[in-house]
Amino acid sequence: EIHRLLFQSVWSTLKAFGQDPKRLGGELGMTAVLHTWGQTLTQHVHLHCLVPGGALRKDGQWQPSKGNYLFPVKALSVRFRGYMVAALRQAIDRGELSRVTHPGEVDRLLDDLMQVSWNVYTKACLNHGGTVVDYLGRYTYRIAITNRRILGVDDDGVRFTYKDYRTEQRKVMTLTGQEFVRRFLQHILPKGLMRVRHYGFLANR
Fold this sequence. Notes:
By secondary structure, the protein is an alpha+beta fold. It has helices at about 1-20, 75-95, 105-115, 130-140, 175-185, and strands spanning about 30-35, 45-50, 55, 60-65, 150-155, 155-165, 170-175, 195-200.
């Protein structure tokens, strides 16, 4: 359910910005790819979104972005936070988050989250779109770790390489077999949940 709300909130945010007559005044397109893992198999749920650099107006004309970025990143971050927190509140009220047994605690947590800055990460409009599509395409069929990163499996555990993005260095981690399997299983999606979705004028017809 939370994965579904993530897709919904991201698209609602971008759609609202695209339709704003002060911005593009048209329909955006978006391809979103769900990515759930970090380099050490921890749960790091986020979407990679490919958005064309403009919008399709009602008259059928293309409205290109005026700059290298579609929208201001701070404004996107604030709007996305509002949509996501509101969607979670509504899901709780509808009883759709079955594991939430103390709604009052979740309400307090969501109140706290509204006071914290959220950061949407964006990149400038790119001319080499094919490279970006190839990059995102790899996430559509891969799972949390590739075989070549696994160095060994024995009674002491599972050894594998990972990239430490803080230092930009390649390191080695060892996990017990049980912990490795636990982390790995976090990234098997629930039945019926699609990893890739298309929206706006890029939606499947």
